[in-house]
Amino acid sequence: MHGFLIGIATCSCWGITAFFLKFWVETRDRFFLLFAAAFAVLSINWLLLGLWQPTGETRPFFYLLRLLAFGLIIAAVWEKNRPAAD
């Protein structure tokens, strides 16, 4: 059951990545590109978790992947909401 749920999370992240890439191609807005990159990193994280059971010494690697993904999301939101330069 655990592998099945990780597979669902991986495929969901791929779908969300494709969704944001579609909007990026239409608008060329970096917001969508950064969100697509974040979900691509999350899909890699889930895929690696499904294929490789982390031990105590490899767990920080998976946390760093998630940190990178959430950092990309924060950067996208921050960049979208900052004041426009005149």
Condensed summary:
With 86 residues, the chain is mainly alpha-helical.
Low-confidence stretches: none
Number of strands: 0
Q: Give Rg in angstroms.
A: 15 Å
Anisotropy-based shape: flat
What's the story with the biggest beta sheet? none
Q: Could you tell me the strand content as a percent range?
A: under 5%
Instruction: Give me the secondary-structure category.
Output: mainly alpha
- Tally of discrete structural domains: 1
Summarize the helices and strands and which ones pair or pack:
Elements: H1 2-27, H2 30-51, H3 59-81
Helix pairs in contact: 1-2, 2-3
Could you explain the architecture of this structure?
The longest helix has 26 residues. The protein has three helices and no strands. The chain has one domain. By secondary structure, the protein is mainly α. α1 packs antiparallel against α2 and α2 runs antiparallel to α3.
